[in-house]
Amino acid sequence: MQVSECVLSSFSIYLVTVTSQAVGGNTETLCVHVHEPKETLSIVVTLRTNNLDLTILQQGFIKNDFYKCVPFKVPVVTVESVASVNVAIQGAETSLKKTTQILIKPPQNLLFIQSDKPIYKPGQTIKFRIVSLDSGLLPHNQDPYSNRIGQWLNQATRIGILDLSHSMSPEAAQGFYTITAWDDKNQQISHTFEIKEYVLPKYEANIDFPSVVTSQDNKVTLKVCAKYDSFFFSFFFLTNNVNFFTDTTGCGSRVIDVTEFDISFSGYFTVDCVVEETGTGESIKQTSVSTSAAFTGRYVYVNFGDTPNSYRPALLLIIERMLQNSFYVRPFHSKSKSFLMLTKTPGKLTVYALHKLSHSNYLPTLQVLSRGSMAQNGRLSVSVNAAQENKGELTFTLKTMASLTPYAQVVVYTVLPNGEAVADSVNFPIEECLPNKMSLKFSSPTALPGERTSLNLKASPGSLCSVRAIDQSVLLLRPEAELDAASVLGMLPVQILSGYPHNVEEWEPNPCPYPGGIIPFAERARSKRSRFYYPHYVNNNDVYKIFKGVGIKIATNSDVKAPLVCDDYEIMLMRERGVDLVGPETGLGPNWEKRTQKIRKFFPETWIWDLIPVGISGYVDIAKTVPDTITKWAAGAFCTSHVGFGVAPKTDLTAFKPFFVSLTLPYSVIRGETFTLKATVFNYLPKCIMVKVTLADSPEFTAQPCRGCTYTQCVCSEESKTFQWTVAPSELGKVNIIVRAGAVQSRELCGSEVVTWPDKGRTDTVMQSVLVEAEGTKQSVTQNELICLTDRPQETSVSLTLPKVFVKGSAKSFVTVLGDLMGRALKNIGDLLAMPYGCGEQNMVRFAPNIYILQYLESTGQLTPEIKNQAITFLESGYQRQLTYKHDDGSYSAFGRTGPSGNTWLTAFVMKSFSGAKKYIFIDQANIDQAKDWLGLQQQSNGCFASVGKLFNNMLKGGVNDEVTLSAYITAALLELGIQATDPMVAKSLACLKESSRNIDNTYVTALLSYTFTLAGDQQMRQNLLSNLDNFLALVISGVGRYWTLADNAQPMGSVEVEMSAYVLLALLSGPSLPGFGLNYAAGIVHWLSKQQNAYGGFSSTQDTVVALQALAKYSAATYNAEGFISVTVTSPSGQRYQFTVNRNNRLLYQEKQLQEATGTFKLRAEGKGCVFVQVCALPLLMHILSSRNSSSRNEGFHHVLTLMSVQTCVILFLQWIREGSHKDLELHKDEYCMMCIKVI
């Protein structure tokens, strides 16, 4: 510190400090300092917002040096608001006023979600907890909820913790799922988990490779270690060009010659390693990628650590350095040459110890900020000799360190007699610590499987603690972010303040005039550089910057800003190649160096998932039985209480026995197929033993020993042996496999060692299960009911009948209840059609339904960001993919430019779909216009359109199969674009269609024409066509349902019937209401259509799904009613009941329950008011049968040899096939395909 002789100030000096941002509803602190007043003063400080004036301090009769810090309640706001802090000082001869602004933010809560594990199998229960804290890490009571496949509303937390679970369907799709929660302030938090069919890994591999290799290095050491979850053993490693075994510690290393690589420049090494378990052949791949400049031609790095970027003359400047580099510092401004400097303690300050901070001072004032608020303040009095220069040191002590974590922002300032202020600030990192001090520890770090143990938990009295213990293998398979003090503190809305928010920034204009702008320097002819004179002002470090650097607003009349000096400054700008002025070309930064015998049959992946209350003692013992898994259990806990939140350091328990057997099983197998069962025996006893391994017989499978295998062998200490059988399961479901390994007495030698027979621990029996799935092809059998109620209850029934050739025991059945007709389609946006993304036709069939679903949800006010984002993702992907099937003339075909020409139907389909999607994603209008122009070229002289090009799958275009229907389809597509009926191209087509309609008695054509003329606004034609349809023999009325068939077709064609009926529904809803054709008439069509939906919300084929969803979305929007409450009871044939409730809050919730019976009559009873959609679905597997009519005309199959490259391979086979219709003529279908998926175990 240095204080020089000063001239006394002739006026009163004041300073008012407050943080630049505050949180509404919190308590903040404002400090007022009046230095040596020259007369009696009074001061008033007020806070003003748009609708509030709050007096923070009103103090009169200030005669002596005055310093006071006042807490005040920050006004509650719902959006960010700017408030002004007004300071008024009044005396007989003094009148001072000053205003500064601060930002008030709405309060934010800390939300996080923890699940009992990060990955699940289909059919397992998802257990999760939502935690809500305020910014002080105290429990916050609120109402979070999640939605989609599960939904919880108005759930109150228990001391800030909400404990929930959701059972996944055994048929749940594999992939990533998201739990989303909102609080009462609409803050959102998400947590992702994965559904996958998996087998846990038994071991992990780690690669040790230098993080940096320089051009001076010739050789580096690669070290690979592999270990089981709880012990080491020998493995075989396969790396690039290097093969080696591990030693008994599980590690192996090799020296790598790096001179064969060019490392004269900067880049990264990638090390790939495949680890194979000796005996079983099981392997995992571990990849290590250095993210910190793995090799570089530069090898000098300099770190200046925490050296301040300003210096005070006459005070010691400590520089931490390594080797050589440059570091620029600027002088600190003081007109009296008086300075103050804080020095930073190395490392992090430890909590629960008093810390002394050394500094030089003169009448010091201390302010300490933490998490954006003032946490401590105070003053010390120090005498100085005015006749001499004063230097020295003083210490302050920081207390209550836990409340300061993760950073203490310390500001020290003083006001000199001349009115000048001197100050300094330092950000001190504090050891991460949470207010609820916790510990978690097992009574013993190791235990035998099945042994009793206890988990000792300590926390603040009255805490509620969430305790979890998970198999370490799960974390190897799917790592997750660790919950610890650092991660919790990282969620804080403010950890450290720096600068001012932009909306309360104190902007100052550049005080220096521009002499005619930027002037180029005259002499630059021979230089590659350009020189400019740029007027600027020198703004040295000053007290104002000290306060701004820690986010404190200061209102004062003291000298806190350095004077501004204008000067011309010559800037060198490089025109060509840049110059490395700072560090090495690799970009190495300061952080480059930077955590009694029994069967073993209980193998949970999550062992402990408990909510434990802690009593007044602050201590609890949790007694548990160790599961049968040989593994390491990773345990953790967090607690909430009135004291606050806490996280316990992780603790482990290793479950281990010195002699055991481990089975290697696939996740699932197909009944009747075989797989290899491998049993590996591990011996950690001190001597060699003779081991006999047996596989228990079971009626659920047959087993054959492998050829040449011996099931009694020597296993010496720290060795393993693997035994194998060929197993063929014969029963469905989980099949138990029991293997016993035991030491037997023998006189044989194991090598040169005598076999021992241990007194204890000489046997191990393990039982594990393998999932056996049925053979066959999945088929869905569904029965739907759309129930609409006014006042009285309604009862009905549905029957499920399985196909005659289904695989016995394979059928699974479910009942689904939705409060919205579109609910099932919404849940299965990506699975409406069981078809992979493929050619240009298939892509569009997935593209179009998203448009209708978005239109429906938007029109009914039900469109959530989650659904919108999912649908937009599909649309954007589909749009980009479809453009790859575009021809240069603007048309589209199944395979794009590889085909001879575009297809008229597909081009019209693409055109109208792109037009509908344009509202939600970017669609280039040129693509729509070019498609329209190309279709115009296909228009014939009579106005109808010619059929051009081939379709890859003829079923996609539905009933559009002749000139009239194709023309009607194209005309409807043009009208859906918004083109008027008077447009020459449309008018000409409508004339052709009107002329053709006189001789048409086809139901499909009439239905399509009714929709086309409805869009054209021709009400007379619309009336005539709908009346014809209502009088057709093809109209079928079944109960309350209504649909149309093809009168001339003896066989039912469900997809065409759906498409026709959907077109009629669109005709009814797309124009003004006609007498006799109102919503009641339309409801009959909807009732029948809803019965035709499959388990995914789609229909029997492709085009009927597109048209039907368009019609259903239009009807649902027209009849939508946000109110309503319905309870539904489903009774199975055996009398078991399933209850459902539908209301305005869960109408889009997909409610599904698995049924115990797959066939029979199910009774439905609904009570309340509104509409509800009920679907009962069975999913049997059909047998593969090759039939023949007689021995001379056998319908032979075909065969093809395939090489499978992955665990599941799907193969598309292109076929030509003949379909025998109801008439004698035969129809040849070309270019069709089938797909088969082959699973590898």
TrEMBL record:
GO BP annotations listed: nervous system development
Pfam family, one: MG2
Gene Ontology CC annotation, any one: extracellular space
InterPro entries (alphabetical): A2M/Complement_sys (IPR050473), A2M_N_BRD (IPR011625), A2M_TED (IPR041813), Alpha-macroglob_thiol-ester_cl (IPR047565), Alpha-macroglobulin_TED (IPR011626), Ig-like_fold (IPR013783), Ig_E-set (IPR014756), Macroglobln_a2 (IPR001599)
SMART domains: A2M, A2M_N_2, Thiol-ester_cl
Keywords of this entry: Disulfide bond, Glycoprotein, Protease inhibitor, Serine protease inhibitor, Signal
Gene Ontology terms for molecular function: serine-type endopeptidase inhibitor activity
Domain of life assignment: Eukaryota
Coiled coil: none
Record-linked SUPFAM superfamilies: E set domains, Terpenoid cyclases/Protein prenyltransferases
Domain Alpha-2-macroglobulin bait region intervals: 340-477
Alpha-2-macroglobulin domain boundaries: 606-695
Similarity section: Belongs to the protease inhibitor I39 (alpha-2-macroglobulin) family.
UniProt-recorded name of the protein: Alpha-2-macroglobulin-like protein 1
